[in-house]
Amino acid sequence: MAEWRLGRGWSEGEIAERLAELHALRTSFDENEADMTPERGWNRYFSESILAREPPGEPVLDGPFRRAELATASYQFSDPAIVIGHFDAQSALLERRILLEMKAASFLRYLGGVVVQAVRSDATPQAYTFAFRYDTLSGHIERGWEWFTLTKRRASGEIQFRIEAAWLPGEFPNFWSRLGFHWLGPRYQERWHRAAHGRLFRIAHGGMTASPAVDAHAIAHTGPDVVFGRTPRVRTLPVPPLERETKVAARCDV
Description:
The protein is an alpha+beta fold.
């Protein structure tokens, strides 16, 4: 069950204790990623944007792609007004435990753990790609996975950021939290997505630091056109595949 608080958050020492406890938790679902589709009852959503453009070919040293890559790996794209990611700054990205502090209505806070289960860093004749996926751990208010993918296309030099997820409601501490999540969750999801693209856009263009602050416990706390799409799980009618959805672009604030 998720831990929650009204008003104030958790101290650095409390965050460090709860982060250490994540190593004893298992993921909150058993399904394979490929099976977590709307037709099997899972909600799906995604967002994507073009962050910047570089000269065609390899990523520029200390250019937009490399800055965005570092910021993606350290969860710096997350808006701390909505979700703060706490993690051991010395930990490797693969199998990293991240304690997410989620905020709602400016006074309500929840804690939920995730673990990085997959990392990609590769180059093909078409593109350079950096990506990672985290899965929710038991006790999280959501259940599912989320991919964060940064791509530079060799031919055009375009740098794209994409977030994609499959989820279901998880473990809520009370009935009104579950009810509130049902009504307000989609709005906060889209707001967080748009803010993530805006923050990474600014980082890619040198407007923000790509490395998060680190506290005394060595724990890091962490304007493009954004396309956002959501595919609800199937209830009574068939739902079109995600890639066939109508996409609506809207500029986010940067």
